[in-house]
Amino acid sequence: MRIAFIVGPFPVLSETFILNQITGLLVRGHEVHIYGYKPDDTSKVHPDVEKYQLLDRTYYIPQIPKNYFLRFLKGLAFISTNFHKAPLVLLQSLNIFKYGKRAASMRLLYSVMPLLKSQPYDIIHCQFGMYGIDGMILRDVGAIKGKLITSFRGYDISWYVKACGEDVYDELFVKGDFFLANCEFFRQRAIKLGCDEKKIVVHGSGIDCSRFTYKPRYPHPDGIRIVTTGRLVEKKGIEYAIRAVAKVANFHHNIEYNIIGDGHLKEHLQQVISELNVAEKVKLLGWKNQKEIIEILDKAHLFIAPSVTAEDGNQDAPVNTLKEAMAMGLPVIGTLHGGIPELVEDGISGFLVPERDADAIAQKLHYFIEHPEVWEQMGKSGRVYVEKHYDINRLNDELVEIYQQVVMSHSQLCNQLPKVSVPSEYISLS
Questions:
Q1: Residues 118, 4 contacting (CB under 8 angstroms)
Q2: Residue 267 class from Cβ within 10 Å (0-12 exposed, 13-18 middle, 19+ buried)?
Q3: Which residues pair with 304 in a beta bridge?
Q4: 200-202 vs 224-229, strand pairing mode
Q5: Of all helices (H) and strands (E), which one includes residue 167?
Q6: What is the pTM of this model?
Q7: What is the tens place of the pLDDT at every residue in 160-197?
Q8: What confidence tier does 258 reach under pLDDT thresholds 50, 70, 90?
Q9: Is residue 7 classed as helix, strand or coil in its secondary structure?
Q10: Domains defined along the chain, listed by start
Q11: Dist. CA 34–CA 125, nearest whole Å
Q12: CA-based end-to-end distance of the chain
């Protein structure tokens, strides 16, 4: 199949779930083109970007000048040199009566620039809801052709809806051919917003389990190593884990807590660490590549994913960093938040605690430290669950099957899609 991915900035280190789908499709012999924006930082990229020469398949929307006069001149030059290629597309992109600010600001015109030479696609896969809207409009103006699939992944179905209004996806729900949600929590949110339940299934975000070697965890004389991987932003709830570790450190002196990631809350979190006088035990390690993360997880004993609902409404799906830790056999502590309860089985692969509850996290940490005999079985249960539900190879096979069925007629699609939904116990298409 010919498949177009409509994304935001690409490539981005924190969005390996998109990269995993693209490379999986290429390995399976499909042709993939990527349409998006050039990221601000291109110094750090995943090794698969070079391995699969993805930049050769990527077409960037030109940077739009902030000065409207320069923007207008650049747009006018583009029209004059390309009008003969797609006159109707270019005229439609300037239709302010139909497309409002998108047309008036010339954003829509700039968006069609990399698409003028594109051939029809079997599938147009938009990653995140807001890019689904972009894909819908680009298809409306005739810049791209194909069946339109949109993936809802987290902030697009939480923060974005709160910011733009609950009707923001109304037109997309009507015009889009099919939808994927990365957890049942967000699938139900989409249905509540107006998505036809027969047009959306759960398709989880996968990891390559073969890259994350399982091993049982046991206490070490040097101490207990605890890890969190995530951006230093409010949604990740890392402050509550720091406060929990500080409480536990009063009773268990031989612990250390390493936090992998970076973000705008770095200075605030460093201040919290200093105020709690745990700088010797809690370290902000900054960004690490996948190899470095695996090395840190390999030496760890416990993992915390303390996600919370941010003030702006942003929420998490079952996060990939948590899947990676579970795949390596780490017992985990997660929160009763978003899609995390669909990943962590409370009392089986780890524990679930309320959001923003440092005392509850501390209590579970204390239990883990006092009862290391549960680590091995919990870690093993986590590995089994991740392999069953989130293995990227199986999920990519299912993605191809979904694509093939979306290309079929709607009646055929409704009859066949349940067998490829992930995980099956969460899907209701009737």
A1: yes
A2: exposed
A3: 333
A4: unpaired
A5: none
A6: 0.87
A7: 999 999 999 999 999 999 999 999 999 999 999 999 99
A8: very high
A9: strand
A10: 2-202 (3.40.50), 209-389 (3.40.50.2000)
A11: 10
A12: 29
